[in-house]
Amino acid sequence: MKKISVLVVEDSPTMRLLLEEIISADPRLTLMASCESAEQAIERLATERPDIISMDILLPGIDGLEAIRRILAEAPIPVVVISSTTSSAESRHAMEALQAGALTVLPKPEGPDSPNFARHCRRITDQLAAMSQVRVIRRIKPRLSNEGQSAFSLPGSLAASGPSQAVRAIGIAASTGGPVALLELLAPLPATFPIPILLVQHIAVGFGESFAQWLNESLALRVCYAEHLCPLLPGHVYLAPDGKHLAVMDHRCVLLDSPPVGVHRPSATVLFESLAKEYGAAAVGIILTGMGQDGAQGLVTMRRAGAWTCGQDEESCMVFGMPQAAEQMGALSALMSLTAISNTLNRMNLCLN
Fold it and tell me: Which residues are catalytic?
């Protein structure tokens, strides 16, 4: 089997050496080159083509964010950001890197003396191997909510799709490609949107709060880290925090320490099953781009309870895995583009206001 070639871009000599050793120790991967600056990496890419790039954000000269934009403008090479979570500026830039086209962000590994070192190494190599297989797609700038009435028109085949009764809560799940998809999906919704939204986004531990802040600054909706027993309010998006399942009870957020579902905590299936129990047909479940099948079984439960369930279609997904799993299990009322899903949500807003 051909090994996956990796280009490392990291300015710290110590971290660069550590990443080189981690990559070289994995039989699936081979180190194509290691660069201390984005300029060196871009020059190298003029003659060589890795399968995937590991990119730091805070670099001398051209920073990682600009490097991602330049690289993806020239060649569709998957990029994984490996960044510090201790700096708020770097965490913020990591979120912007996702918008620029990076596939995912991972925290920098701790040193070999750390008890978590082996687990961190495995996560890095697993993600590099998995993301090297992802097709890199052109990023589409999210449409704004003031584009006019034309934003609410739908093709006839989709116009009939949607909940059959008033909705009290919406659950959304996403993984790989999710941050950009969520931005496109939620950007057209106004601050007066009358339905609370609960969100499970698979993202590396340490980046959740930065993701919530970035999304909050990008949307008219109020995005916040979910807190235990906080009430669900209209116009709010509640993000499941690191290492906790998010559920609902008595129209409040509930955070759970129960075991992971598969490998996920938070798990979309836990959220969707709680929505089915709490609201039945008065809930909506939406599953977006991502690897694996988290959320699919939960959407089955929601649909059996009479809820309207929807998956992002393959054409607009970065990775069709999660919606495809839900579709194959018969969990979806519809497969739709992000624009069509957003239009459906906006019709709910128009009906309830």
Answer: 175, 202, 294
